[in-house]
């Protein structure tokens, strides 16, 4: 079973487990329940939207938490890969967690003003190290996709200074990473 199979299985289980229903007029609407939202059979969509409120924009603290979580996911995955090198099933869950976290990190692309914080927290060398040394192709693809999202042309047009900070760090750390890897 590879990461993609585990993702499909987890998604299927979540859909089966997390789907609730509520009435909207004469219709029954299916939705994932949110613990912050009180849903009754008489709830209407406008009430639910009001309860959810606007999405909180990402801030520097979120980037710090994102990087701490990345550190933990990488360390756990490396530890389990070494410990259970002959039994991939034992480290597959940690691989999946790392994969999912890298995908979640693409949310940073919506806040390019936080790229300098991202760079300052050591994200670039850490991601490049994953790109150079991780054995799972899915993780490599996730890192490439993350950089692709962060370095999008639209993002550069909207916030060139922040993207320049990221590109400068990427070039500097890429050179250093490849030299030390060889």
What does this structure look like?
The protein is mostly helical. The chain contains 9 helices and 2 strands; from the N terminus they run H-E-E-H-H-H-H-H-H-H-H. A hairpin with a 2-residue loop joins strand 1 and strand 2 (27-31). It is globular, with a radius of gyration of 20 Å. Residues 18-33 have low confidence and may be disordered.
Radius of gyration: 20 Å
Q: Can you write the helix and strand succession as a string?
A: HEEHHHHHHHH
Q: Span between N and C termini? A: 32 Å
Query: How would you state the average pLDDT, rounded?
Result: 79
Give the percentage of residues in beta strands: 5-15%
Unreliable residue runs: 18-33
Topology:
Elements: H1 3-18, E1 20-24, E2 27-31, H2 45-52, H3 60-83, H4 89-104, H5 115-120, H6 123-133, H7 137-150, H8 153-158, H9 160-181
Helix pairs in contact: 3-4, 4-7, 6-7, 6-9
Gist of the model:
This protein is mostly helical.
Comma- or semicolon-separated keywords:
182 residues, mainly alpha, two-stranded antiparallel sheet, 2 strands
């Amino acid at each position: 079973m590879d990461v993609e199979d585990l993702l499909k299985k987890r998604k299927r289980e979540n859909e089966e487990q997390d789907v609730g229903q509520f009435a909207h007029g004469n219709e029954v609407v299916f939705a994932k329940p949110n613990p912050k939202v009180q849903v009754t059979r008489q709830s209407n969509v406008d009430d639910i939207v009001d309860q959810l409120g606007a999405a909180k924009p990402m801030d520097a603290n979120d980037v710090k938490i994102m990087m701490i979580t990345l550190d933990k996911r990488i360390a756990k995955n490396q530890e389990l890969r070494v410990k259970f090198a002959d039994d991939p099933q034992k480290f597959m869950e940690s691989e999946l967690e790392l994969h999912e976290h890298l995908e979640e990190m693409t949310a940073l692309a919506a806040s390019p003003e936080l790229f300098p914080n991202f760079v300052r927290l050591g994200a670039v060398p850490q991601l490049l190290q994953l790109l150079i040394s991780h054995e799972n192709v899915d993780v490599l693809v996730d890192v490439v996709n993350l950089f692709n999202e962060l370095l999008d042309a639209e993002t550069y047009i909207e916030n060139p200074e922040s993207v320049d900070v990221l590109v400068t760090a990427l070039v500097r750390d890429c050179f250093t990473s490849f030299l030390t890897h060889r």
